[in-house]
Amino acid sequence: MIDANTLKKETEKRLTFAIISHPDAGKTTITEKLLLFGGAIHTAGAVKSSKNTKATTSDFMKMEQERGISISTSVMGFDYGGRRFNLLDTPGHADFSEDTYRGLSAVDSSLMVIDSVKGVEERTRQLCAVCKMRKTPIVTFVNKLDREGKEPIELLDEIEKELAITVTPLTWPIGQGKDFKGVYHVADKTLHLFKGGQTKLPVEVIDIPSIMSDELDSYVGSTFAAKLREEVEMISAVYPPFELDSYLAGTVSPVCFGSALNNFGVGELLDTLIKIAPSPLIKEADTRVVHPDEEQFSGFVFKIHANMNPRHHDRIAFLRVCSGVFERNKLYKHVRSGKTFRSSNPTAFMSQDREIIDQAWPGDIIGLHDTGNLKIGDTLTEGEDIQFKGIPNFAPQIFRTILNADPLKEKQFHKGLNQLAEEGVIQIFTKLHQPNVRILGVVGQLQLEVLQSRLETEYNAECRYEPIDVSLARWINCEDKKKLKAFVTANERKILQDVAGNYVFITDSAWALNRIQELNKEISFYITSEMRN
Ligand code: G4P
Fold this sequence. Notes:
Elements: H1 4-13, E1 14-21, H2 27-37, H3 57-69, E2 75-80, E3 83-88, H4 98-103, E4 109-115, H5 122-133, E5 138-143, H6 152-163, E6 166-169, E7 171-174, E8 182-185, E9 190-193, E10 204-207, H7 214-220, H8 222-238, H9 244-248, E11 252-257, H10 266-276, E12 283-284, E13 289-290, E14 298-306, E15 315-323, E16 326-327, E17 332-334, E18 339-341, E19 347-350, E20 353-356, E21 359-360, E22 365-370, E23 379-381, E24 398-404, H11 410-422, E25 427-431, E26 438-442, H12 446-459, E27 463-467, E28 472-477, H13 481-490, E29 495-498, E30 503-507, H14 510-519, E31 524-526
Parallel strand pairs: 1-3, 1-4, 4-5, 5-11, 6-11
Antiparallel strand pairs: 2-3, 7-8, 8-9, 9-10, 12-13, 14-15, 14-23, 15-22, 16-21, 17-18, 17-23, 19-20, 24-26, 24-27, 25-26, 25-29, 28-30, 28-31, 29-30
The protein binds guanosine-5',3'-tetraphosphate (G4P).
Residues 21, 23-29, 49, 51, 143-144, 146-147, 259-262 line the site of guanosine-5',3'-tetraphosphate.
């Protein structure tokens, strides 16, 4: 029996978050520096960037195999400042897929990294949209201030406009590039001085009596001091002061500036997260909301990692604990099948190691060995029939017709295709007017190659793709089922069905989608299978 106080204490300690960014903005560098500051690793270079594997499928498969061995990079746990950090990896590189989107269902907050030279980029836009849909609180880190980048004001403007989120600067940079002097902490009224090529921790922090005092000039020179005074006055007028509630509601993102490569700003970022980032939040299920400090355990699977031994289809399912305590060897209910589920070797991911654990608390991510019973979105409970929301499929951007290339391997082909779809590698749709035709949908091009390669190596099956003139898909619904049916019948050739039987409208351009939406105002179009935008 777990006492309520321990549960509350362990829950409040947890801080489960993900870093979202466009490739090359500095996610790997920041992850590594967070782990270094957090004392979880002791040498740089321990966190591998996957960006070099952009090129080919074989590289990707090799990377996946390596990951099979050191799967711990998927979640990096460490203790710092009295809290347990669970940092979830959201692949942003070659292996970009729905997995990345879904990983965000398992976190309570995000850290968004923006390259000060490049500003807001495509992948950040996509990931930020998913966070906004879930109202996930976001802290923004503007990186690479040691390089000549955009003006900070211009950057914040761009973030607000492009990501439709309000920002509030917690720190303000003084100069940039070779003139980068450090940052001024707006609320603390402290000066954090930057020394080029900094390797020592922490950075030098100076309390200055007032931004108007001459002391400021003595540290950064009078030109930069004058510019800082002017800019701080301006930002105080333009941006709202930091308010915890609006950050937690996901409407305002506090912004810090720094240079991860130079160890500048990352320690402060960690301290900011300790202070403001939420403990495990309430999760929405189909019948009710689930509070983390409820005594009864509940959790959901958000990712399946295939085993790299091609002849055995055992896998690791990643489960996020939502409430109560998960215990090793205890019998739980697998809600979808109604069967019992027991794990004798649940795995936790601390820093770079995996270890078998006896207990896991709300906010924790654990790995469960599984031989094919668990699917993405599945719920485990102590008996209650609930289904967590927020683990949907996302509208794919790339579509192909998939055909079995070897008629003698029909069975293997279907088995492989279905299992890999369950694992979340691809989505399968059928055409309404040709139910035997299978259409694949993916978010990243590489998933197509991965599917082909895995069908061959793991299922001894071969497939062939044919192009299809579709680049946009939206799940559709209408309260009036007759109207939905009429729309589906009228647009039969542009309708697919997903595995759950939901209707999906497909088209080849944003213009065409807009037009059909204009003409059919009673129909709702959604980017996720959960019918949320
Ligand atoms: P990613 O995971 O988001 O893709 O980015 P990653 O950390 O791998 O960083 C991308 C590149 O940006 C790396 O350089 C990295 O060293 C550099 N970088 C990260 N933070 C900073 C910073 O604060 N200032 C500057 N100037 N550069 C930064 P690279 O040349 O691509 O790789 P490497 O050879 O340095 O590893």
